[in-house]
Amino acid sequence: MSLLRIRNLGIHFGDQRAVDGLDLDVEAGRMLALVGESGSGKSLTALSVLNLLPDAAHWQADELVLDGQSLLGLKDREQRRLRGGKVGMIFQEPLTALNPLHNVEKQISESLFIHQGLSRSAARQRCMELLTQVELPATEDMLRRYPHQLSGGQRQRVMIAMALANNPRLLIADEPTTALDVTVQETILTLIKRLQKELNLSVLLISHDLGVVSRFAEDLLVMHNGRKVEAGPTHRVLSAPQDAYTRHLLASEPSGRADPLPENAPVLLNASGIHVSFKGQRPSLFRPAPAFHAVDGVDLQLRQGETLGIVGESGSGKSTLALALLRLIGSDGRILFDGTDLRALKRSELRQWRRHIQVVFQDPYGSLNPRMTVGQIITEGMSLHFPDIDRQQRDTRLCQLLEEVGLSADSRHRYPHEFSGGQRQRIAIARALILEPRLLILDEPTSALDRSVQHQILELLKKLQARHGLSYLFISHDLKVIRAICHRVLVMRAGRIVEQGNTSTLFDAPQQPYTRTLLHAAFAGDTLPR
Amino acid sequence: MAFRNPVWERQWQVFKRNRRGYWSLWIFLLLFVLSLGAELIANDKPLLVRYDGHFYFPVVVEYPETAFGGFFESEANYRDPVVKDLINGKGWMIWPPIHYSYNTINYDLQVPAPAPPSADNWLGTDDQGRDVLAGLIYGFRISVLFGLILTILASAIGIIVGAVQGYYGGWLDLAGQRFLEVWSSMPILYLIIVLSSFVVPGFWSLLLILLLFSWMTLVDLVRAEFLRGRNMDYVRSAQALGVRTPVIMFRHMLPNAMVATLTFLPFILNGAVVTLTSLDFIGFGMPTDAPSLGRLLGQGKANLQAPWLGISAFITLTILLSLLVFIGEAVRDAFDTRKFLK
Q1: A493–chain B Cβ distance below 8 A for any pair
Q2: Which ipTM value was assigned to this complex?
Q3: Which of A108, A416, A425, B91 is 20 to 30 Å from the Cα of A490, by its Cα?
C-alpha cells in the first residue's frame, strides 16, 4: 500500500508550467528517489506535499493522499500539524536551514514542544535519543553547540534528528548531500538508509545524481521538464531503461578514459615546494597571528598535452594551489613553466606570460561580468596580448572560437544572463582559449553543472586538447569525472599530497587509506553499468 | 551604449515604474533647465531692443546710455523712465516676464521695504527692495549648481579613495580607515566659521572648504563593493588574462560600485544644498550680494511682519528637497535586486 499517493499534480508560475500531470507513489517502508536535472520540478513536487510552495506558484492535484488522509483543502492548523509531525523534511544546505542563533537542543526540541507539548526534561531526554539515532555523541556538550561549531556532516545529522523528532511516517530529503564532501555524503546516505529500515520510514529522496541514489533507493522516478519520464523499481529502471531520456541520463555518467599521451612529451610545468600560508586570527594583541598552511610543500610536474587531476575534499587546498600556480596569490617554492621561473619575473614580464596559462572557474554565474557582452568578455584579453590584430580579424577569430566551443556566432552580442550554466562555462572556456594558452587550469569546471551538461563539457575539453595539444590541470572533488579525463591524478589532503600516480594505477590499486576511503565513497556498490 | 546594457535597461524600467520618482526627475530637470536660463526669465534688461532701425541684445552685450541718445557713458538703465521713453520713441523693447534681476532694487515702492506682493513684485520684495521671485530663481540655480559640483567632486574623490582601499586592502586599507574616522569626526560647521574669518567666502572657496569634509560619504560603500568584487571570479579571470589593475578596477569593478554611488547621489546633492543654505542662513556663506535661499530665509526670520519672505523661501526649498528625495527613492528601488525579481 502506498503511503503517499499523488495523482495528476500540476504546478505553474503564471503561464509557465513547472510540473505537469505528475503521478507519484511512495510505498510504505521504501525509499523513492526522485531524479532529474535542475529545473525539472523535483523540488517543487516535494514542497507541494507540505504545501510550502512559494506564493507565486499555483498548484492543483486530483489526489494527494498521505497515509489514507487527503491533504487537499486542509486548514492551516492541520497543515502545520502535518509539517514536522507526520512528515519530516531535510533540506540541501544545512547551514542556512538551521537557525544560527539556536543551539542543537533548541533546534531539535522546538518541534517537540509544538507537536507533543513535552516538558523540558522530557524533551531533553528525547533529544539525547535522537542524537544517538543519528550517530552523534549524545552529550550535554553536543546539545549546547551552535550550528557554526558543527561540521557540514554534523549539521546534516542535526537536521535529520529534527526531522525525526516526532516519529514521522514520511521523510522528505531534498538533495540532502549535495553540499557535502563525497566521504561525508556516503555516511549521511547510509544513515538515512539505516533509519528507514529501523524505523520503517518511507523516504522521498530528491537528487540530481543518478549514480548516488541508485545505490540506496528501492524505487526510482525520473523527471524531465516537469513530467514523469519513467518510474519503477531501481534495478529494473537501470538495467532496462524504457525511455530515451533515462538512457541519456545513464549515458551521461562520466565514462571513457583520457587518450594516451605520447612517450616523449616534454615537461611543461614543473613546480616544487609550493607553499601558501594565510595569517589566522591573532589570539591576543601581543601574540603573533598563527599561520595557516593552505598548501604545504607541493611538488608537481605536468607534461605537454597531459591532464593532471587534483582531487581533494573541500579545504584540502586544491583551489589555493591553482591560484598560486597562476601567480594570483603569493607563494613560496619554484614554478618553472617551460623552463622559466614564473616567480622571478617582473610584473610586466609576468603580464606577458599570462597568456600561456589560463583558468576556468567553477561558478559559471560568477565568472562572467554581467555588464559586458559575450563578445567583449571573450576578446578582452586579445587587445592586451595581440594588439596588432584589427577589429575585423578579431571578430572573425571570435566567431570561429564560439563555433569551436559549440555556441552560435550570434551569441557574441548577447549578455551572460541569457545563457544556461553549461553555455556560460563554454564562454569561460572560449575566453581562456582565445589567447592560445598552453596550460589551462580548470578549477572544478563541471561541479555546478548537471550530469548531462557535464558530459558535454568534458567531451569538449577532450576535443580541444586533442586539437591544440593543451595541458590541463583539472581540479575536482568528483572522482568519476577525474577518472574520465585525467592521465595522472594527485590526491590532496590538508595542503599536502597524499598520493599520486597514473589514473589507472591509482584507481585500481590505491596505496593510501585516505585514497581508498575516497574511492569507496565514490564507487562502492556502483550499480550502474559501465 | 550604456542603455543597451540589459542590467541598466531593467533598472531604468524599475525606476520608471516608481511614478512619483519618475515625475520628480522630469520636474526637477525642467526647473533646473529653466533656472539655468534665469537671465532670460528675470532681468532688469530687456531681451531685445529695436532702436532706430537696429537690433540690440542688452542681456548679452552692455550698451552705454548714449547708444540710445541718452547723456551718460555708463551702461543704460533700461528701467529708468527717461531711457524707456528714449527707446520707445524710436522703436520697441521685449522684456522678460519678470522685470527684476536678483540684485535690482525697486526704488518705486509705495511702502517701505520689505514690500508685500503686488502686481509689480509678484512675491513682494525683501528688506532692501529687491524682488523675491527673481531672488528665488537665481538662488535655486546657485544652490543646485553648487550642490551638483560639490556632489560630483566629492563622489569622484570618494570613489577613488574607496576603490583603492578596497582593491588593495591590507595596511593601506587599515590606515585609510583610521584617517577617515579622525577626519570625519571634525566639526565641519565650526571649522567653516573659523576659516571664513581669514578666507573671504566666495562660490569656489566655499566649495573647496566643503569638499574637504564631504568626500567621505561614499568611501565606505565603494570600499565594501571593491572588497567584495576583488574576489569575484570574473575579476580573477581578468587578472589571469593579464589585464592591468586600473583597467580591472575601472571596467570590471567600478560599474558595480556605481550602483551604490548612484543610489546615494540624490541624497548627497540634498545634503550639499542644505549645507549651503544653512551657511547662508547664519551668515557665513556666499558673499552678501549673491542670490541665496538661505539669506532669504534669514531675512524672513528677521522680518516676521513680512511673512512672504520666509514662506516663499521655505516653499522653494521644500519643493527642491522633496523632488530630490523622491528621485533618490526611485533610484534606490531601481537598484534593489529584490525589486527586479517581481
Answers
A1: no
A2: 0.75
A3: A425
| Closest CA–CA distance from residue A324 to any residue of chain B (Å) | 11
Q: Is A428 on the interface with B (CB under 8 A)?
A: yes
**In the 3-class helix/strand/coil scheme, how is A238-261 assigned residue by residue?**
HHCCCCHHHHHHHHCCCCCCCCCC
| Contact across the interface for B234 and A363, Cβ inside 8 Å | no
Does A412 share its domain with A518?
yes
Q: Do A381 and B242 touch (CB under 8 A)?
A: yes
Q: How many CB pairs under 8 A join A and B?
A: 63
Task: Please check whether residue A75 is in contact with residue A69, taking contact to mean a CB–CB distance below 8 angstroms.
Answer: no
Identify whether residues A116 and A217 lie together within a single domain: yes
Contact partners, residue A215, CB within 8 Å, separation at least 6: A189, A524, A525, A526, A527
> For A343-401, how does the pLDDT look when each residue is reduced to its tens digit (9 = 90+)?
888 888 888 889 899 999 888 778 888 888 899 899 988 888 888 888 888 899 999 99
Q: Cell 553648487 identifies what position?
A: B146
Range of the domain at A511: 268-280+288-522
Are A444 and A288 in contact, with CB atoms under 8 Å apart? no
Cis peptide preceding A290, ω within 30 of 0: no
Q: Are residues A380 and A297 in the same domain?
A: yes
- For B109-161, how does the pLDDT look when each residue is reduced to its tens digit (9 = 90+)? 888 878 888 888 888 888 888 888 998 999 999 999 999 999 999 999 999 99
- Does residue A364 sit within a domain? yes
Using a CB-CB distance cutoff of 8 angstroms, which residues of chain A are in contact with residue B7?
A: 370-371, 415
In this structure, the answer to whether residues A418 and A304 fall within a common structural domain is: yes
Within a domain: A263: no
User: Where do the domains of chain B lie, and which CATH numbers do they carry?
Assistant: 2-39+134-341 (1.10.3720.10), 44-95 (no CATH)
Distance set, CA A117 to CA A80, A107, A166 (Å): 14, 15, 11
Is the CB of residue B170 less than 8 Å away from at least one CB of chain A? no
Question: Which residue out of A348, A351, A369 would a mutagenesis test of the B interface target, given it has the greatest number of B Cβ atoms within 10 Å?
Answer: A369
Q: What CATH code is carried by the domain that includes residue A25?
A: 3.40.50.300
> Is the model more confident about A179 or about A267?
A267
Question: Do A303 and A434 belong to one domain?
Answer: yes
Work out the percent of chain A whose per-residue pLDDT is above 70.
98
CB contacts, 8 Å: A377 with chain B: 234
pLDDT at position A116 over 90: no
Residue A177 near chain B (CB below 8 Å): no
Mean pLDDT of chain A: 86
Q: Any chain B CB within 8 A of the CB of A435?
A: yes
Residues of chain B positioned with their CB less than 8 A from the CB of A371: 5, 7, 255-256
Same domain, A473 and A498: yes
Q: Do B242 and A415 touch (CB under 8 A)?
A: no
